[in-house]
Amino acid sequence: MSENRSDLPLREDIRQLGGLLGSTIHEQAGETVYETIEEVRSLAKEARAGNGAAGRALEKRLGELPDEMIVPVVRAFSQFLNLANIAEQHHRIRRSRAWIRDPETGPLRGSLEEFFKRMLPDTDPADLHAAITELDIELVLTAHPTEVMRRSMLQKYNRIAALLDQGDRLDPTPEEIEEVHQSLRREITAAWETDEIRRRRPAPQDEARWGLAVIEQTLWDVVPHYLRRLDRMLQRQTGRDLPLDAAPIHFGSWMGGDRDGNPRVTAGVTREVCLLNRWKAVELYEHEIEALIEDLSMQAANDELRAWVGDAWEPYRTALKAVRDRLLATQHWIEARLAGRRPADALIYWFPHELREPLMVCYRSLQESGAAVVAEGRLKDLLRRLSVFGLTLMRVDIRQESTRHTAVLDALTQALGIGSYESWDEAERQRFLIRELDSRRPLIPRDFEADEEVTEVLDTLSVVAEMGAGSLGAYVISMASKPSDILAVKLLQKEMGVAEPLRVVPLFETLDDLQGAQATLEQLLEIPWYREHIQGHQEVMIGYSDSAKDASHMAAAWALYQTQEQLVATARQQGIRLTLFHGRGGSIGRGGGPTHAAILSQPPGSVDGRLRVTEQGEVIQAKFGLRGIAERNLELYTTAVAEATLSPPQPPAPEWRGLMDQLAETSCQVYRDLIRETPAFIDYFRHATPEHEISHLAIGSRPARRKPTLGVDSLRAIPWIFAWTQTRLLLPAWLGAGDALARALDEGRQSELQHMYQAWPFFRAFIDMQEMVLAKSDPAVAAWYDQRLVPESLQDLGTDLRQRLRDARDRVLAVSGHENPLDEAPVVQRSVGVRNPYVDPLNLLQVELLDRVRHGHEEDLREALMICINGIAAGMRNTG
């Protein structure tokens, strides 16, 4: 694999971090452990280079490890891979900065500079300015049921990244270099001495605090810095600035609100998380106000500010001290609520405009009093933060399954003696719902009593009424399939006294639901009551995870594309604005992939300046954990959504649609035949992967299964993919695609497929993601699991799957025209290659651990298995 001189600093960072980890292990764990780890590392590198004898020796050596030696060996390789990830992330920032500094290079693809340079020749500057300033991009942070790393470890790794950045300073002294080296040594030693696994399953509140930490540690500072850049670019390229109230990108959350299949998310939890979000927002604003009080010591003020503060000697400080005092009162009020008390009414901040008003008075006064340059500093940054984060940092969505609302209404109708709502057909349900929505009398009797699940839904809606739209975002209905599912939530909000009803967002997840989404939307918009109450705007969520688990990644990708086209067409015909909410995960099998390419591959008209998308668990840390990378991702979202709005891709040719229909049909059939119709498959899956062990580990607040059954249908999409990622087979991402492409290739359609790859962004993005999966997959590694863990009667199934993987690789490369996967992404290709010798021992050790655990050593080896899962996830840069 060819080396690039630009990667020399990366190799040096990895060498330094690896060396420090090695010396730490030697000091902390002793000579025997250190020598064992070095022996394993050397054998793994030789084996990956093709030395069969080394491979056999590696398997033998790991198989002979005593139980007490496994934990330090697993920890060593796991921590090295995490350190390599830090070095790579830091190197991305370093390379971006070097690229910008070099006058010989063009601007980075997807950067603001590249976007404006490419778009302006064919776009009116006024249209470009409008497109940017009117962007409505919401990144919805979600908890991750397979997030394996503790927050304390993430914080240590972030400090290591900061030290690497410090080490890149120009012209450091020898003493400064040594200080950075010693600080790195301290952090790596602290990480080695820290328990990296959770001893208890995190509560939803813990996950919410983790999300708030991402805001506090990176995004709070990155957002205003990025918006300054965007403002300068707009002024330079269009002659107009970014309005102070513009929030092209803002944030939502499912942490503490996603109750679909998670009994631990209760009404009380949602209330607490909403209050926590407000408390943290007030704390952050209070710190900024304190800094402004220190900064704004000048006396000159305009009449507007003087009307607020009179003849105060330092008018800005006087005004801001009043703001600070009100923020502190708000904080104390929230603390009382969190403690379960009902505090007396006080003058607190509840709405963003209340805080914005005095800040704008100060801003205008500075502008008019000869201190405009001061107004453009910290104060302007604070105003921009207020536009983006509001007083809650991120609004919490409520998500609940449609059947829970049906159960509430059924209990109500039966209690009222008017029949069983659940037994009514769709037409009768709609008549009832519309009649009650129009009625002014309450539907729920005061003495209404119901079971725990019904009561919980109603209690949640009481919290919605209490917290208000400032704290909450959308009400998402999972497994929505008909208009009554949406109307039911509208009615329940009305009955529970929600003064500002949350917008109701149907989530279409399975293949059948996706295919029926257009009909559902059309039927909804034909209902006069509904049409009047949505005020010309409808949001629809489409799910990537469950659709792929249901029908194959290829069939789901095509169904999602067509569903978006159909929804856009319906919205245009009906004259409403449509926002599509993409429920994407980090892995390829869950809609993951490079942000920029993914957005630009969406159907024409499906973006149109508006986009909501989930960012999940580990992906949040990867995209927003370091400031340089966080800013780059905000930039990519901005430019991709703006470009998709101004210059959408052309629709696919009719013959391409026909071929995609065939590919999707074949892929779905092959996938379902194996997953659903092969009797031995579930048994094989449970033997060949650590799915059972993963479900018993404390790595997420949500259960791994929606229902206590053993089939794939009840298993959540994330652990389904996580289990296959651990074994390096990554089956959900490619199964079916290779067979579908084989059929088309056998029919002589290779040139047509290659043309689609070159000319159709959707198909190119799909094939590129298949190459990513195939580069990370390894049938030889997957075979290790089968040899030790799978009964002989099921071995043939594993052999067949590994051959399918090899065949899929050949067929994907036949379409892309590449010799090897990722030939057009050499940086990623090298990254995968560097990691393999360090992931291989972890896979072998996981096989050994699973074998021992399944033969009665579970308690002794649970910790090692958890760390091993962590390490493989780090090496694969993915869980689920």
Structure description:
With 880 residues, this protein is of the alpha/beta class. The protein has three domains: 1-106 and 151-194 and 826-880, no CATH class; 112-150 and 198-298 and 371-651, no CATH class; 652-689 and 727-824, no CATH class. Helix content is 66%, strand content 6%. The protein is built from 37 helices and eight strands. Strands 1-2-3-4-5-6-7-8 form an eight-stranded parallel β-barrel, surrounded by seven helices. The chain starts with 7 loop residues before the first helix and ends with a helix.
Give me the secondary-structure topology:
Elements: H1 8-29, H2 31-48, H3 52-63, H4 67-101, H5 112-119, H6 125-133, E1 136-142, H7 151-167, H8 174-192, H9 204-238, E2 249-253, H10 267-295, H11 303-309, H12 315-338, H13 352-368, H14 372-389, E3 395-401, H15 402-415, H16 426-438, H17 452-467, E4 472-478, H18 483-495, E5 503-508, H19 511-515, H20 517-525, H21 528-533, E6 537-543, H22 545-551, H23 553-574, E7 577-583, H24 595-600, E8 610-616, H25 618-624, H26 627-646, H27 654-675, H28 681-688, H29 691-695, H30 717-726, H31 731-734, H32 737-746, H33 750-759, H34 761-776, H35 779-789, H36 795-816, H37 826-876
Parallel strand pairs: 1-2, 1-8, 2-3, 3-4, 4-5, 5-6, 6-7, 7-8
Helix pairs in contact: 1-2, 1-4, 1-8, 2-3, 2-37, 3-37, 4-7, 4-37, 6-26, 7-8, 9-10, 9-14, 9-26, 10-12, 10-14, 10-17, 11-12, 12-13, 13-14, 15-17, 15-18, 16-18, 20-23, 22-23, 23-27, 27-32, 32-36, 33-34, 34-36, 35-36, 35-37
